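Supplementary Note 2. Why include the ligand at all?

Several targets in our set were suspected to adopt different conformations when bound, so apo predictions alone were not considered sufficient. For every target with a known small-molecule partner we therefore ran a joint prediction. The input for coenzyme A is given below.
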Amino acid sequence: MSFLSVRMRASLKGKHVSGAERIVKDKELEETLSQLVKRPSDYDQMVITIEKVRKLRRVEESLKLSSFNFNSVSEARQFALRKLKESGVPESVALKGLNLISRGANPRGGIMRGAVLMDIETGNRLEKDSERGVRTVRIDWENRREILEILRKRGLTERTADALALATKNIICGVVAELCWSDDPQYLTGYVASRTLGYVRITPLKEKGDPLGGRIYFVRREKLLEIVKCLEEEAILLKRLQD
Ligand code: COA
Ligand code: AMP
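The joint prediction is reproduced in token form.
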């Protein structure tokens, strides 16, 4: 049986507005396309890429998911910093990452097109292009419908399913820890992810109406090339949600 990587991106007036991807069996292609084309609410260009997957890695389970709510952004951010420290990120480097997302990691302003790669020892940025960053692609759930059902029963959405899959792939590829919150001004939940702590959802990591967000991958610089290759190229299907 062959598998396909199906990726959709849409833009409006030259600005990226929506992206989503799947790894599916070839017989599921049509249904997948009909779901993906409905994702963007408005666009003037949509690009869909379909590629045969040459080598697929199946992984038994995702990171373990947990959620924490706070009364203020500052308490939530202090908690995120603590979780990063527990994951092995030095306090000063964790703070540098957090400050970078909160003021906008794109040196030219606006949001980045991918994640920041941050040297876990020095806090230096390691991406080749700091407006672009690096993107994690070729990741999906083997049984997306089942995973969505489980998450919906816990009051969670497809957004969490996608972010959890992406964060799990990052850790599999060798990222030590990740800090993320969305650039969607209405979506205030972010997360810290690491091998030891799992996927820790944290609310609210920013104030309502704040358009800035991003992702920081804390990495060991000697592993940079293999990590980036894995994030961009390795196709991974996740079997189960870790309980
Ligand atoms: N943000 C902004 N621009 C993006 C983008 C993104 N996430 N993904 C693609 N683009 C634009 C860029 O201009 C890019 O050019 P660049 O490489 O110079 O940055 C161009 O599209 C082509 O990108 P490419 O890497 O060829 O796209 P792709 O066909 O491999 O698709 C996506 C990548 C869209 C599937 C991926 O970025 C994505 O959005 N995945 C889903 C992530 C997800 O699930 N998020 C929700 C959980 S938080
Ligand atoms: P989102 O959670 O979709 O709002 O995305 C938050 C930030 O993550 C974006 O502003 C980008 O900087 C970054 N990003 C988007 N897609 C990817 C990806 N596929 N891999 C890594 N980073 C991404």
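The mean pLDDT is 97. Residues 58-242 form one domain. Comparable summaries for the other entries are listed in the accompanying table.
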